[in-house]
Amino acid sequence: MRIARSTCVVVAVLMCVxxxxxxxxxxxxGRPSVTFAAEAITLQGAGAxxxxxxxxxxxxxxxxxxxxxxxxxxxxxxxxxxxQFQQSLVNFGASDAAMTDEEMxxxxxxxxxxxxxxxxxxxxxxLPDGPSELKLSREAYAGIFLGKITQWNDPEISxxxxxxxxxxxxxTVVSRSDGSGTTFVFTSHMSxxxxxxxxxxxxxxxxxFPVGVAGKGNEGVTALIKQTPGAIGYVEYGYAKQxxxxxxxxxxxxxxxxxxxxETGKNALASVKLPANLRAWITDPPGADAYPIVSYTxxxxxxxxxxxxITETLKSVIRFCLTQGQSYSVxxxxxxxxxxxVARVTKALNEIS
Amino acid sequence: xxxxxxxxxQDILDSRRHDEQLAVAATQEISRSPSxxxxxxxxxxxxxxxxVAWLTVGLVVWIVVRIxxxxxxxxxxxxxxxxxxxxxxxxxxxxxILPAIVGTIYSSILxxxxxxxxxxxxxxxxxERFLSSxxxxxxxxxxxxENRLLGKLPDRLEDLLKITVELLAAVPSVVYGLWGIFVVxxxxxxxxxxxxxxxxxxxxxxxxxxxxxxxxxxxxxxxxVLPTISAxxxxxxxxxxxxxREAAYGIGATRWEAILAVFIPTAxxxxxxxxxxxxGRALGETMALAMLAGNANVISWSVFSPANTLAALLANHFPxxxxxxxxxxxxxxxxxxxxTLVVNIIGTVIVQRADARLKGLR
Lengths: 353, 362
What we know:
The structure holds 2 protein chains of 2 kinds.
Chain A: H1 2-26, H2 32-35, E1 41-47, H3 52-65, E2 69-74, H4 78-86, E3 92-95, H5 101-105, E4 111-125, E5 135-136, H6 138-146, H7 155-158, E6 172-176, H8 181-193, H9 195-200, E7 213-215, H10 217-227, E8 231-236, H11 237-243, E9 249-251, E10 257-258, H12 262-270, E11 294-302, H13 308-322, H14 339-348
Parallel strand pairs in A: 1-2, 1-3, 5-9, 6-7, 6-8
Antiparallel strand pairs in A: 3-11, 4-8, 4-11, 9-10
Chain B: H1 3-30, H2 36-78, H3 81-84, E1 88-89, E2 94-95, H4 98-127, H5 130-141, H6 153-167, H7 173-199, H8 214-238, H9 242-250, H10 255-284, H11 287-292, H12 310-317, H13 323-357
Antiparallel strand pairs in B: 1-2
């Protein structure tokens, strides 16, 4: 009996040891299906290309903290984002132009617009023998894009740049050939500062540019500017920064020449009050040190979701983006949301259920 | 009869007997009526091929009908003005495609002209053994033409050149576009601007080349149609009957007289077919042109001016288009379809006529 009992104990101990080693063996790096009790959740999103680098960063950082949540974001463009959102093909959309009241009326679940970050558009140029810094007055850059100013040594350009040697080069205007939120923001600004632009060209995701050539996507425009001496075009700040292209200082509403920077961008955001629906197009910010071409970009969410799990996950993702996520903005070339805007967007999350 | 002759006669007799035996065996096999399975299998095969053939036709019709259906509202509201309007303003729902039509045809014809010259030159070079006979001469000079390894060199090099040209067809369109932006445009800009400065009074050089434009687009397009033109033309030149070749040299023609006055006219039908195929590719080419033509709604005689094409217009505007613009884009797609169809029909008719004319020669 005694022997049998001790054998039992030995066997039991051995089994314990065996089980513990097996357990630890499959523990942390082993099979995820064993370690994750929670089931995987996938969120689908589609829309704007402009905030794409930042969104990708956010979603991959969130995924590191919550491995069970997988977020797929397709950067198809703002228009496509709105369309897919209206057809309920995605859990959330994204758009640089927010949504119009007309577009929102078509979504029966209701829409919540959430500004997530802001960015700016710069005028990049290519002047091989030109000055390293260039100031452009409102008349100058409106005239260039309207095709009225055709040479770099035009008096309108040289006036605010005393001492700068501007070459006798033909100006080639580079615009976007595809419809885009970037064009929407730029043309909205141009319509705000120039009555002639508003009348002849107008604002929109794709407009009929009076002069110049057009490239597809920010990268297409960047490539054309870099390859064409005498070129000037509008690109998102992030692209211009990455490719190291020179950017012009622009005259703002209060008549001051402002270079784009984090501070001047923040000033522009601060000078505009967001209305109750969190939708404000900053076509011409009034602040003294505000950079003139700045825009929010929005996430589009439904007011009602079928699956409470999706609702909770989406809210958690957005909260992460509004808090920790804002710290990634600067290095990627975006403007972090002001604290009061973060508070209001967080409050708006309550509308989602 | 010598023994050898007798042996041959015997052989012939033997082989005849053998043939007869085979023939008898064959008739026995064939004379049986087909089994039920053979009949059923035959019918099923025939039916299925018929269905698949009609499905292909149906698919084309379906595509045209679908595009036409979505385009209907735009066709109604824009009608004929669509063809003569020169702006595309999505924000004002104002659409016209005249610059795109002109740009499509201009760039295709220019690209095809360059491509045909070079493609035909390559075809002649490869089919008339210029390369291999040249190398052969060099080898013979060193007494190496009978060498086991080097003797094959001329043929090998010719094959290599042929494959290299055909490989051009495998390069993705977007790579051609990038190459155009970063290599072709900077390379031709000084020459183009010299032409504009000195010969600017000629409408073709009326503007300066700043960046993208018709000429760089056409040059890249010509390289893209090169493999089609050179491969088919070469095959046609090789297929010129030997008796015609021999007759040409026989009446004392020089090599170039034979090529230009005899071989090329004989192969003209096929060469023309190659050019039509190339035109089909040029008209529909999208990505490279969207990157190189400049996407500007401009109509100009100048080959340095930026332009737009129908395919590039579609590619650029589809992703962000709203329903009104989608209708207009479908209308434009219908027009592009119509242009390619007309070009192909004209091409086929010409090829058939030329074929009939040259029938006696083949």
